[in-house]
Amino acid sequence: MDSIIKVDGIRKIYKMRKTKEIFVAVDDVSFEVEKGEILGLLGPNGAGKTTTIKTICGLLVPDEGAVTINGFDSVKKRNKALRHISAVLEGNRNLYWRMTVEENLEYFAGNRGMSRKAMKPHIDKLLEQFRLKEKRQELVNKLSRGMQQKLAIAVAMLADTDVILLDEPTLGLDVETGYEVREILRSIAKKEGKTIIISTHDMPVVQDLCERTVIINNGRVIADESVDHLLQLFKTSAYQISLKEPITDEQQEMLKFEFPLHSWKGLDLQVSLEEEQEIYALMDILKRNHTPIETINRTEINFEKVFMQLVKEEAAS
Amino acid sequence: MTTLWNVIRVNTKKEYVEMKRYFANTLSLLLTFYIIFLAMFFGIQVIGDPAEAGANTQFIIVNYIFWYFAMMTLQSIGWTVSDEAMRGTLEQLYMSPMGAWRILLSRLSGMIFIHFLIVILLLFLSMLTTGEWLNLNPAATIPILLLTIASMIGVGFMIAGLSIIFKQISAFLQILQFIIMGLTFVPLSVAPYLIAAPFVKGVDMTRQIMIHNYTLADFSISDYSWLIANAVVYGIIGVSVYLACERYAMKKGLLGHY
User: Fold this and answer.
1) Number of domains in chain B
2) Any CB–CB contact under 8 A between A11 and chain B?
3) GO molecular function terms here (chain A) (predicted)?
4) Cys bridge to A219: A7, A26, B69, B108, which one at CB 3.0-4.6 A?
């Protein structure tokens, strides 16, 4: 498969105006996105996601490194690169609220140079696809949040670019609309072969929609793996041990030393093992005071847990 | 060229639609300007020399019309940039492969076209109010006006560049109103050094046509040279300053911030 986006060692530094303090927003971030792939770009707040997204969109010039979209450098060949990418960066704020649904679509299509004749069938198709046909003459400020979000995505789709970048596409949506948006995105990727990059905090969206994920923390890529692989990896190493009695302080100290990323929920100890054999070391700690064990289970893992674990591990290292 | 025309078309339509949707705001803007004109007109009647009342009134009508027009042209891209940044739509404009400056230029062209129609309305309203009729002579006025607008657009782009970096420039725009007033009201015969200032030469030549019935043949080569140089220099400097500010904002991550 060919890469349509190449992010190659980008680094961006901000200098605080007053304190002259230097803040490294992203540092040596590299990854590639293949044609037709749905990629999840994740990270806690302030991790460097927005900087990465804006650099991909050519809205930010990196201090080092480069981004190419379909072979065009996002800074040096900006206008050519922009022919291959569209984005929803601020959700429903990307729209003109005192204009109707149709006027918004016409405006953004025209801004990409499309003629009235050329845009008409395209707009009709999108209104149908996003179930906004009945609302075409409605002012955007009269639409529900979900409809506004769908319209923002439709606006990004208008350009008919190879890549669509969505920043928090399901933020603030109710469960039903969130699901609808997810289905639309899935169909766009499958039927139209679009490459989609989703930046989100909504882990079920990632688990459900994305094939691969790039996780950024403290400005660095800490994971670049397929979602299935990450889930499998954590599924085999995560355990929940239910105890009948609490452990002693001495045992607690030993746990902290051997398994720094463990956590407690009442008498349930949750721990991730790097190697299967580590279970014996854990048993040794519990055996020291003959702590009675109720059950030992492999933890049901979801992507949220994987994400939290990866971020915690990175912070601990 | 066709694609640029499409950009101009949708931006003009957007300006018209928003003026229509914010009708109360548009109407109050027009009323304010008309009231300012009435204040100027009656002020002249009270304190001016009665023997020259007619000439003074004509002078005021032309200057006042240009003041309105220059203010709308110069301030509008600045307002547009800070308003779009506040709404969250500015970055979307920068995502167009047409280049944001072309979109802003198209938006400005749309605004100029709409405000030109408003100016004509205000002009007739002022002439009707005062009973002083000016020589409009479109064949002579329009070419000069187009070159004058080019230098106004240049200055407008400089202001847009500043708006991209600083966003909050409303205080500056308010001061600018008075600077524009000075540039449109003070004739070159009183302050000849203002010939190098943006759009002053154009306003002066239009005044000659409308008040003193000049035709294009009555102007010298020097007049035209100053007019064209003014349009070209301010036009080029304006777009260059804007593009430099845009590059700076992209480097510092200021696009879209408010």
Assistant:
1) 1
2) no
3) ATP binding
4) A26
Amino acid at B80: T
What values do phi and psi take at B171, rounded to 5?
A: -65, -40
Phi, psi at A168, each rounded to 5° = 50, 60
Q: What is the pLDDT along chain A (317 residues), one digit of tens a residue?
A: 578 999 999 999 988 777 778 888 999 999 999 998 999 998 888 888 889 999 999 999 999 999 999 999 999 999 899 999 999 887 778 899 999 999 999 999 999 889 999 999 999 999 998 889 999 999 999 999 889 999 999 998 888 899 999 988 888 788 888 888 888 888 888 888 889 999 988 888 888 888 898 989 889 998 898 887 777 766 667 788 888 888 888 888 888 888 877 888 888 888 877 777 788 888 888 888 888 888 888 776 677 777 777 777 777 66
B253·A107 Cβ contact <8 A: no
Helix (H, G, I), strand (E, B) or coil at B139: helix
User: Quick check: A130 and A151 in contact, CB under 8 A?
Assistant: yes
> Tokens 């076209």 belong to which residue?
B113
Q: Does residue B149 sit within a domain?
A: yes
Q: Is residue B257 part of a domain?
A: no
Check CB contact under 8 Å for B98 and A106.
Answer: no
Q: Is B144 on the interface with A (CB under 8 A)?
A: no
Q: Is B181 helix (H, G, I), strand (E, B) or coil?
A: helix
Which DSSP category does A246 fall into? P
Residues 194-223, chain A, touching B (beta carbon < 8 A): none
Among B84, B92, B254, the residue to mutate for chain A (most A Cβ within 10 A) = B92
| Interface membership of A17 toward B (CB under 8 Å) | no
Of A119, A110, A275, A129, nearest in space to A194 by CA: A129
Q: Do B89 and A51 touch (CB under 8 A)?
A: no
Q: Are A150 and A185 spatial neighbours (Cβ–Cβ below 8 Å)?
A: no
pLDDT of amino acid A317 = 67
Complex ipTM: 0.84
Q: Is residue B258 part of a domain?
A: no
Using CB atoms within 10 Å of the CB of residue A311, give its burial: 0 to 12 exposed, 13 to 18 middle, 19+ buried: buried
Q: List domains and CATH numbers for chain A.
A: 3-225 (3.40.50.300), 236-316 (3.30.70)
A191 CA to chain B: closest CA distance, Å? 25
CA distances from B230 to B108, B189, B194, B235, B237 (A): 19, 18, 11, 8, 11
